[in-house]
Design brief:
Elements lengths: L2 H5 L3 E4 L3 H12 L7 E4 L5 H4 L4 E2 L12 E4 L6 H4 L12 E4 L6 H8 L5 E5 L9 E7 L5 H11 L3 E5 L5 H10 L1 H18 L4 H21 L4 H7 L6 H9 L6 H21 L1
Parallel strand pairs: 1-2, 1-4, 2-3, 4-5, 5-6, 7-8
Antiparallel strand pairs: 6-7
The structure holds NADP nicotinamide-adenine-dinucleotide phosphate (NAP).
The site of NADP nicotinamide-adenine-dinucleotide phosphate (NAP) has 26 residues, from helix 2 and helix 4.
Length: about 270
């Protein structure tokens, strides 16, 4: 499905910060007409102003009402921001939310239980079109609605479909919060290089390129990441020496990441309970 075709019935974007701007940039690149987009944001950026979309203008009503409302405000602004969209609830307009921690039930309370809705969990590589977004629809969302949501969200990277809303917490623990774990891996890999005597900027360049290159290889290769690891581990070599530390059952990566992802998942559950 073409994004420009989906947008022909109009898209309202509520909140145009980092996530909203990344999506809007992707849609415009894919040929969406600025005339089809209404953005609501209290402090429009300079970038937004020069896109030609309608900013803080009244939304068209009745037959001309936007086919899709995409919600990209911070969860704590939801109570203030969403009422402006309430009149579009319980109708044909599809609502898509990328807000962390705001449940389908909360949206149904605010917008009406007959509102077609897709809840999505993106991540920050969205800023360069390399994000991954997991989606789940409510009972009112049709297959076509999920297709439309997926096509719009593919402007910021890959998409995957979930089987239940309960999976969102674990997705948050893996991919939602995951980029920060990888940033920390880069920091600590570079610091370890420095501790072994490398200049700081060289260690950082090596660490960034290693993580980016290994990530790209893991995505592109036919082999599993486990096989790729085995392929670069010669018996009694340097990699094996490091992996004996990292794969240690007591305090290596498996235990550490299990605890880290568990903590993020638990926090996501707490936040969605309010
Ligand atoms: N960034 C991520 O990696 C990431 C990952 C997963 C999920 N998300 C979700 O994506 C959503 C947006 O995050 P973000 O990083 O893009 O945040 P952000 O950069 O702060 O963007 C939010 C935008 O909404 C605007 N806003 C505030 N109140 C509003 C209102 N009443 N009506 C309309 N717009 C309003 C903000 O304006 P002001 O700046 O002037 O307040 C800002 O431009 C959040 O719900 C977050 O949970 C983000």
């Amino acid at each position: 499905m073409q994004v420009s075709e989906i947008a022909s019935r109009g898209i309202a974007l509520l909140g145009c910060g980092k996530m909203g701007s990344a999506m809007l940039a992707g849609w415009l690149d894919q040929g969406v007409s600025p005339d089809a987009v209404w953005v609501i944001d209290p402090n429009p950026s300079d970038w937004l102003r020069q896109t030609g979309v309608q900013i803080n203008a009244p939304l068209p009503e009745g037959d001309k009402a936007p086919g899709i409302v995409l919600i990209a405000v911070k969860p704590q602004m939801m109570g203030e921001a969403l009422p402006q969209m309430q009149s579009l609830g319980n109708g044909p307009t599809l609502f898509i939310s990328v807000a962390a921690g705001t449940s389908i039930a909360t949206f149904e309370d605010l917008l009406g239980s007959q509102t077609p809705l897709v809840r999505a969990m993106p991540n920050t590589p969205a800023a360069i079109g390399r994000g991954i977004t997991a989606i789940i629809g409510n009972t009112q969302a049709s297959i076509a609605d999920l297709d439309r949501a997926e096509a719009l969200l593919q402007a910021i990277g890959q998409t995957v479909r979930l089987e239940s809303e309960g999976q969102i917490d674990a997705v948050t623990g893996v991919s939602g919060s995951g980029p920060a774990y990888v940033f920390h891996l880069i920091e600590t890999l570079a610091a370890a290089g420095e501790a072994e005597g490398l200049p700081a900027d060289l260690a950082m360049q090596l660490a960034k390129a290693t993580v980016a290159g290994a990530g790209a290889l893991a995505e592109a290769a036919e082999e599993t990441p486990s096989q790729l690891r085995v392929n670069v581990t010669s018996p009694n070599g340097t990699t094996q020496a490091a992996l004996e530390v990292l794969m240690n059952e007591a305090d290596g990566f498996p235990t550490l990441l299990r605890r880290a992802v568990g903590a993020a998942t638990e926090r996501s559950k707490e936040l969605s309970r309010g």
